[in-house]
Amino acid sequence: MRCMKITFDSLIPATYNFQSVMTTIGKLKYSVVLVIPFSAIPAFFASGILTLLPVLFFFVLVPVAELFLKPDHTNFTEQENSGRVKDAFFDWFLYLLVPILVSVGVLFLITISDSKISLPDLIGRTASMGMVCAVAINLGHELGHRTNRVEQFLGETALLISLENHFLPYHNLGHHRNVATPKDPATARRHELVYTFWFRSQFGSYCQAWQFEIDKQRRHERHPLSLRNRMVCYTLAQIILLLTILFGFGWQTLLAFGAAALIGKLMLETVNYIEHYGLSRKLKADGKYERVLPRHSWNSDHILGRSITFELSRHSDHHFRASKHYQVLDSFPQNPQMPTGYPGMMIFSLLSPLWFRYMNKKIDELNQPSSCSTD
């Protein structure tokens, strides 16, 4: 009688293999961003330190974890990239995140309208909503780079949560064109304090967004304040939203919403600060700047920070090829690297003396003739 040889592989279903498991993990890692809006929900009903659940996750748990987790510089093959671009999961995850964030925002308005909330709890819940606003801005950034009008509209809806709609015309028409030059208000200069940068970047980008849209209307021989001007439409939408909150929930709720939106803006500007701090493009003899290269952005391959921000910390590739979707951005480990992920670097940037001492030294090293990078 012949014995049947049983192997470990024969016990595993044919459809189950290591590669499929890794592919699934590669998708689901982006769901870590859901911790922020989902932890904000209990925070809106809590008291004391628990009102800061999303803040503690992003600015305490993640930075500490990234001190021990090694960066992952792995890039996908061309075949894998093609499959990931065609995989509807990555797009639908973004689409479904929009109503989730909007719903959390509505819940915030409802819970914060209780006049019996203590001041510390009011501050804590507002800070948690500010974290949700920051996620919405980053989501709007990713969708705002898409060419499909429906996707762009979803991005605009996400940005409305933080009253940051001007980000789209400025970012796409200004920042990507002028990054790492004095023309870009969102590029932090060497020795510039993050606290002064917040104002220069926010107001500078807002003014440039209006200028871009007005110039566009004039090129098409339309009135500068035509409804085809996106900034006009964005302003009207924001006014309607603010009036709805005022008459529907009252002054306290309106002020709390405004404070949360401000927190979201400050987080955006802090990210802008760390992404290009002290890096500059060379001015050529013809008066034009060299093209944007991977060396003009700071990067981080720390996995948690990458997942929470939709790979935004692989910033060199985002600027080098702005049309690429987040799930296929490549690592450029030979170009400017941050010592930790975005959450940790955002905290570090607030400690200006230490920041200057460390980052200016890194910039000097990058500018050494022996320094090389792959362009």
Distance between the termini: 66 Å
The average pLDDT score comes to 91
Low-confidence region ranges: 4-12, 371-375
What Rg, in angstroms, do the CA atoms define? 22 Å
Question: What about the largest sheet?
Answer: none
Number of strands: 0
Shape type: globular
SS element count, helices: 15
Proportion of beta-strand residues: under 5%
Please give a structural write-up:
With 375 residues, the protein is mostly helical. 60% of the residues lie in helices and 0% in strands. It has helices at residues 18-28, 35-43, 53-66, 78-86, 88-112, 119-144, 149-160, 167-178, 194-219, 230-249, 251-276, 303-308, 315-320, 342-349, 352-366. The protein is globular. Residues 4-12 and 371-375 have low confidence and may be disordered.
Summary keywords:
single chain; 375 residues; mainly alpha; 15 helices; 60% helix; 0% strand; disordered C terminus
Task: Briefly characterize the structure.
The protein contains 15 helices and no strands. By secondary structure, it is an all-alpha fold.
Write the layout of secondary structure elements.
Layout: H1 18-28, H2 35-43, H3 53-66, H4 78-86, H5 88-112, H6 119-144, H7 149-160, H8 167-178, H9 194-219, H10 230-249, H11 251-276, H12 303-308, H13 315-320, H14 342-349, H15 352-366
Helix pairs in contact: 2-3, 2-5, 2-6, 3-6, 3-14, 5-6, 5-7, 5-11, 6-7, 6-11, 8-9, 9-11, 10-11, 11-14
